[in-house]
Write a structure and sequence with these properties.
413 residues, alpha+beta, 25 strands
């Protein structure tokens, strides 16, 4: 009987501890969240962002031990993915390629260590121009001497570029993952994914078209499957009112207008389909294309949605790459750095924050700059608010008041 009583007391104690943990865990989680807000508030108390208009949140994730290569199919991926590389600690020439959801979860090995070398790094880590197809199967990855298409289904590596050296990449996938357009320095390429066939812009439009791609500022529209090439209107050979022999030989006597600072090409055929003043004047806007498609960023700080004409969406004065428009928000990747910046059109009703930085770090490992991937779901819903709903929330006015109270207690406690 005595043993039964003791056993009963032990079970009661275990149950009570378990219930106590369940009851108190939310309290301690909330306390830790407010303490973190207080730390951040304290770090910027003497800056112009002490009103909570600019905030940051760091996702820290762990890389699994002895990982297996993940299934390439992204049909069930409901959030965009960050693509990044991890260096071998003892041999920096060996890297592995990974994917991570932008909410900091589910790190997945895509390409094992040693299969591909690292992307070039000249102060800018060109791994940031990696991109993944909507269905998850293909990766476009900059390399030291070329750009490669990597097929995650069978490990096939295809060189798709003849240009050497590190350079910015503008990449646009077809929404059904049948092709990808890649613009780098003087090259503009269409890759048919089923056959790995590479069609060059000059193959379609003649050798003079190389002159166009050399001077063009490209941006693309995924929804239109169109390629926009923006020019300085005074550039010889592209002005209005006259066209030289090379221009006529390239485009002929088509019905496309002969005047305008922007040429529009069909992404399926690489043929000219329109021309007009669709881009702000080059003196007002030095076009910097978008990573995701459907828009571009001016180095002066303005973001535009592509169109005829383009539509100004807002301002963000920094050197960045436009990632996407998502609902009423603009999303950017820095030229240098490892974060995503969300810029709100205006403060939310419950929060003063108009700029949110999401940072990413792998515990105990050297992580490279990252590229970007996305699932079919994300492409179909990129105008919705789904990204922001599934990321760390903006601090509310009430949260900031609690954080200020914690600081007050620290200073006078």
């Amino acid at each position: 009987m005595k043993k039964k009583i003791l056993l009963g007391l032990s079970l009661t104690t275990v149950v009570a501890v378990g219930i106590g943990y369940i009851v108190t865990k939310p309290y301690f989680d909330e306390k830790a969240r407010i303490e973190l807000l207080a730390d951040q508030l304290e770090s910027r108390i003497n800056t112009r962002f002490n009103d909570g208009s600019k905030w940051r949140y760091r996702y820290s994730f762990e890389i699994p031990n002895n990982p297996k290569v993940a299934d390439w199919n992204t049909e069930n991926v409901k959030l965009p993915q960050i693509l990044f590389t991890i260096e071998n600690r003892e041999d920096k020439s060996k890297v592995s390629y990974w994917a991570l959801k932008i909410d900091g979860t589910d790190p997945q090995l895509l390409i094992p260590e040693g299969v591909l070398p690292p992307a070039p790094n000249t102060g800018i880590d060109y791994a940031k121009y990696m991109s993944r197809s909507p269905n998850g199967r293909y990766l476009v990855i900059p390399q030291e001497n070329s750009t490669v298409l990597y097929d995650l289904d069978n490990g096939e590596i295809t060189d798709i570029s003849e240009e050497y050296g590190a350079t910015r990449h503008d990449i646009m996938w077809d929404t059904d993952s049948t092709q990808v357009v890649v613009k780098k320095r003087d090259e503009l390429l269409l890759v048919k994914l089923g056959t790995k066939e590479v069609v060059k812009f000059t193959d379609v439009n003649g050798s003079y078209a190389r002159y166009m791609t050399s001077f063009a500022k490209p941006y693309m529209s995924q929804s239109e499957q169109a390629i926009y090439l923006s020019f300085n209107s005074s550039l010889a050979g592209f002005g209005c009112g006259w066209e030289n022999d090379e221009y006529l030989e390239t485009f002929g006597e088509s019905d496309v207008p002969k005047c305008g600072n922007t040429f529009v090409f069909d992404a399926k055929t690489l043929k000219l389909v329109d021309r007009g003043d669709f881009t702000p004047d080059s003196y007002d806007c030095n076009v910097w294309g978008g990573v995701y498609g459907d828009g571009f960023y001016c180095l002066g700080g303005e973001a535009y949605r592509s169109g005829r004409p383009s539509e100004k969406m807002g301002n963000f004065p920094a050197t960045v790459n436009l990632l996407a428009f998502n609902g009423s928000d603009m999303w950017f990747l820095p030229v240098n750095g490892r974060n995503i910046t969300r810029v709100l059109h205006q403060p939310k009703e419950n929060s003063p924050t108009t700029q949110m930085l999401y940072l990413y770090g792998a515990k105990g490992l050297k992580k490279s700059a990252f590229g970007f991937g996305f699932s079919r779901y994300v492409i179909e819903h990129k105008e919705a608010e789904s990204w922001s709903e599934l990321l760390h929330p903006l601090p509310s006015y009430a949260d900031l008041e609690k954080a200020k109270a914690v600081l007050e207690e620290r200073n006078h406690g």
